[in-house]
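Re: that chain you flagged

S.,

Sorry for the slow reply, it's been a week of failed gels. I finally had a moment to sit down with the sequence you sent. For the record, here it is as I used it:
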Amino acid sequence: MKVMEYRIAASQWPMDAELGNNRIIAEAPEGKYIRVKMPWRRRDMHPECIGMKVRFTPTGKEAEKNFGTDEVTNIRIEKAEREEGIIVFEAPVAGKYEIYYYPGKVGGWVYSPDAVYDKVEDMKADEAWLAGMTEDQVKEGEVLFYEARTEHDSYYPMEVPMTAEELASFTADDVPFKVIMESRLRSIRMKYEMPYIWTERSAEDLLTLTDTAYANEHYVFQVGVYGIKEVKDIRVDFYDAAGNKLDTDKCICFNLSGVNTDGIPFEIHRDIAEKEVLPLWCGIPVEKWENAAGSELKVTAVISAANTDYTVKSEIILNVENDTIPRNGDNDLWRMARLFWLNSDLGISDQVLKPFTPIENGEEDLSMGLIGKQIIPGSLGLPEKIVSYYNDECLIGEKGRNVLNGGFSLNIEKTGAVVNNDAESPAEREIRGTNTTVIKTEAIRSDIRISSDIKYEADGHVDCKLYLEAAEDGEYAFNLQMFVDAKMAEYMVGMCYEGGKTPGWWTYDWKHTEVFGENVWLGSVRGGIQIKLLPANEQWSTFGSAHILPPMWYNEGMGSMSMKKLPDEDKVLVESKTGRMHLKAGQKELLHFHLLLTPFHPIDYKYHWTERMSCGGTRAHTQGIDKFDWAVEHGGTLVYLHHGSKFNWNINYPFLEPEGLKGDVDDAHERGLTYKIYYTVRELSNYATELWALRSFGDEILNMDTNTEVVADYWMPAEEKACRKGMCFNPNWWRGGLWLVEHMYEGYVGQWHQPLPDGNVDCAVHMNGDSRWHNYYVEGMKWLIEEIGIDGLYLDGIGYDRRIMKRLRRVMEDSGKRCDIDIHSGNDHQVVSYGYISPANRYLEHFVYADSLWLGEGYAYETMSYDYQLIENSAIPFGVMSEMLQGGGNPYRGMVFGETARLGTQPVVYEILKVQREFDMTDTRMLGFWNPECPVVAENDRIKATAFVKEDGRALVAMANWYPDKRSSMVTVNKEQLGIEGDYEFYAPAIEGFQEETVFSSMDMIPFEKNKGWIFLLRRK
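Prediction finished late last night. Pasting the structure tokens below so you have them in one place:
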């Protein structure tokens, strides 16, 4: 079959023209019926379902938008098969005609669209024209070439499949699989078809790859394997020119071996289905080869499988230059050298991170001293006693308070007779560096052998693993009890309970398996504890992904969590029950959970009052002012670059415009500003250079949900779709833009989409919660710090757990410069599809290493209670502070928690910050209404005050009204505490948009408008 010439349009036609991304240009004579045969070699399974459009530009007209000015509506599709299409259309004039064979648009929300294609039945050919066609009237047109709207949209060369005849010839040998060596420049893309261009290569050429590499380069190539028959456990072994087998440090196949996110090497056993193409991405770190520079480096790859004796040998011949290149080739994306990042263990260490201090392990007992805390392990190595030395300012004081009142217990119930052999061996302690202490125990209870592995870390995180083995067959139930001291458990958030005062009781019973209810925090500013139930292998769940249930705790819906106050015992009991389950003798299971001890560290008040994030880039642009000059003028010290912004257009892939990005960072630094960037893991841009390589890893990195495995479902006829009802897309996800449907054809999960300034769309795909892409991500952070000069991260949603956060923090610390982490989140407690969990509970393990928070979108600042705002929004009980977002927040109530909106969101922020600077908040004590030492108290209970007190007794007071209406109240001041002799007055300085200059005497009833308040300076009369 003829192969078309493939081109890229000289200028792209607009996406909103609804013509699609691909067209065929044909030459046609003038005529009522023109037939054009198109060897389009399509990938979709049902081309007959998609309509077509034809356009042309008559002589005398000029196409302004790079597509024909006139549309042909008289079109008849005679044939629409995968290899070839034939259409007949009316050609009013002789000339070139544009045939659009994937016309479509994106519907729905711009950031989460669905591809919508024209249907055949919607084509509007004139009935008389259709009926009047006879064969003798038909003239022949000629296909000239194929044209893609952009280079990114093009199918050539790796998505132009062989025809059935070509494939049969290509695979005519009676062998189980075929091997094709391919360059890194042409990523193998199709999962069940092979590209036509391979038919143009000789048999010898297919098995040989010759290229040039540099002396220190991380050289990458592909070994393509096509399963003529089913292939079990495909293997690739590498040998040097002398026939010596190479270790993975000399040549590695990334698909078949690697290093996980804990730095542990692993192997992957991969099968290949019949008629499946598997690209095996491999790498040669040339720098590891002695005397390679200036010579020929020859590697033989032997491909074999477990279910056949057949093997294939192929060769890689590299002519190695004497010269080296920067960073082993990482700076040139096209080299694909960054695939080596997938196996990085960068940042993994047992050494303590700042601001934490090394664990002080007791010499005479198993006690551990953490920053502001003392822990004594008890039964099964779990905490028996936790003493917090934090006070109500979230600073470390002298007085210790018990967080627990009774510690932990694991109760086991067994139906029937139980052998009375309960026992517990002495605990063993293992000290790992300065950050980690592990307590291990062995015990027998109710015919269950228990091996515990409790890992305590210096930041207050405790990873608890209770390995269970049944000694006898039986019905068992497990109940983990945690007893928290009632005086400390003042507030609660979790188990789908919004933050606030701890209720008398609360339960979570897994009825809604899609919500995140299996964690709960209880505590106060002085101390607290979170428990989070986990599966055996921890998997981070993110918004938009399936909720990963912990099987043992969930137990098919029979598990539950509950909290109840025991006032007679001064305790609060949290129970995590598995419900009853059958275990066989010798069966092994794991009860896995995490504990987090709060506050993590003292609040850095100076940082909070000194560093100010500017969000004024857009406002500055509209005013014709440089965004950095604008930030400096308005008191900003930090700026961030969001995705969808210049130099960072693409989602979680800030590597495509390095020179421009570095220039932007340098400009910010010249003005004394710190520069953060949006860069996380959750979804990934479809412009990522490594995207096709990542897809070759199956479902390890990209979310390849089985319900979306064949995107051809979208194009199936209605009756075929009906037969496969329930096999299409998860309703929580979307198909996404045209590019995803047309190129990521065999399976993907669409995620956030970002319109680009050139009229295209960045179409992200969903990532898994724990994969080697996280290793890449950590290396990417190092590269951004060292090569671009960024000063930290702005995280809007987080696609990884605390292990990766710790590694990031270490990379930042090791850089030798101050790097910050800023966490932003919306209110995920709004709807079930968000997981119905507060960000303060979901991201608590990340708050440990955050410098600032912006918990803003979706928060109703006008209606939230002060308890809720303290726990869920301010984050003060956890050792970090936040700022407001939605609608600018409530500036009156926010100041009670030290919160303002960010620069560039509300004009009133500038005025409040002026007052803060004039008062110099950096050396004040923050005495909130939750603190018994707060020297300012309103007579009305729902009018709250926070005093920011200097050492000389001067105080700035923020007060706000939480009543649903206007109130007036007397306000009492502890004059002795502030060193005030004689009378005083409340002076409210003029703050534009906030309050008029006002003075109240110490005996005045001060008015408080609904949802408003005051900022006062206490003045001596």
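What I noticed first: Residues 708-712, 721-733 have pLDDT under 50 and may be disordered.

Talk soon,
D.
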